[in-house]
Amino acid sequence: MKSITIKQPLKLDCGKEISNFPLAYETYGNLNEKKDNAILVFHALTGDQFASGINPVTNKEGWWNYAVGPGKAFDTDKFFVICANVIGGCMGSYGPGTIDPSTNKPIGTNFPVITINDMVNAQYNLLDHFKIEKLFVVAGGSMGGMQVLQFVSNFPNKAKVALPIACTASHSAQNIAFNELGRQAIMSDINWKDGLYDGKTFNPDKGLAVARMAAHITYLSKKGLQEKFGRNLQERSDLKFGFDADFQIESYLRYQGSVFVDRFDANSYLYITRAMDYFDLTKQHGGNLSKAFKDSKTKFFIISFTSDWLYPTSENKDIVIALNAIGADVGFVEIKTDKGHDSFLLDVPDFLSTIKNYLNTTYLNINERRI
Amino acid sequence: MKEEFKVISELIDEKSRVLDVGCGDGILMEYLLKNKVVDVRGLEISKEKVKKCLSNGLAVVEGDAEYDLKQFPDLSFDYVILSQTLQAFMSPENVIKDLLRVGKKVIVTIPNFGHWKVRLDLLFKGEMPITKNLPYEWYNTPNLHMCTIQDFYNFCNNKGINIFKTISLNGQKTSKITSSNLKFKNLISELGIFLLEK
Description:
heterodimer, A: alpha/beta, Rossmann fold, Rna Polymerase Sigma Factor, Chain: A, 8-stranded mixed β-sheet, 14 strands, globular, B: Rossmann fold, 8 strands, 35% helix
């Protein structure tokens, strides 16, 4: 697993300082000689650095395998894609699961509370590592989109194109409510032990699975669920008058919960959802979101999905409005799909082809200095 | 290249900021980028067309001019263009008001309902006219508020909107419209192109 060690101290929003910590990353494609073809991709809540191909830890397809790869939307035949595991995560970057050498146990809830801003500031070190002066694109969906917005706000001249997808500039009460539900599920698990479970004998798997089940519902649309499962029964011809998984949807959610705990750390789930809840770029700029982007010449392309009720079009459009208010270069489209918030991770041809064409054309246009 | 776009392009100064309202496939935007040094943005209601524009790298936002012009600050563009779309709005009057708020200058083109072919259709056939620029049946037309060059001229005068230039387009032929030839041009023009200011 590739990683860099960030030596210089990083001052976190909570006031604490961290240094000498690992940031795990993966890359796809090749950085060209001019170093002008780099794309930094930010992952969502439960993602990791393995965006494309086969994830070597889970042996499953990378989370953005539909979008990242040779000939795909983020075409790794042309572009150099970098993706890092966020701090607070559990795939090699500094997080609550990192072993504290002084106790030989996971740091657990002694890990400092982190923010989207902290995540982005940590990942900025990758530009130095690869000696990239300016990224071609910063991109991401959901929490990845929030990182895109924060990145441009923090580093106004470090990306030519910003591609925030299905996200928000300010986590809504509904978003916070769902995250709190997940956290309560974890913290109610007897094995959570105030966050100091050892990760071997004790793991709050039940709580984490329930958190995942609840969250998973929010990623899908009512119509999508109805069409995929309806009231279909799970391997039985009639109701069993009990609390087994009678319905396919129950069985599906239980399965999603059970496979999730194999790859994700419960404390990471707490920390990362907290970071999302604390995200309010508008408030960071005194109530005026436009101010977040006023120093930037970055070209924005914002995408939302019709059936996404978790980060609805209206919230994505608020970002468009803030950008238009300062005359920024912005494109926006709402893609029609029944696949809900998860659309950005799935095979939605309209979505993928628009990104592909947009990036290819924009890369050429920039080189021809047309824009 | 559509003759109309050539005329519009000639009305626009170099190095200006342009907003194309109802930009469609972005053909006019592409034309302006190619022929002028301009910074051009688009607003378009059709998802399909927005995707096409974005695929070509154009800065186009999906939206409805009747609601989404609000987000643009006062005088934030040097030119705002509305090409053959005015008649499709629920409230053309409010849209024009918003265009004049957002743009220092506004270019509006209208398909002319006063053209002689239109008048003859109605006079002799007694049917709603169907022409090259107005190819719809009455029951499926998106054009809710058709007007003539004369109507639009009167509208501007009544609302105190300054008309800088009016150009008639008939086939490939362009000519100036003045107050003295207005009645005649209203009869022979397929399109009227207006350069306006508040």
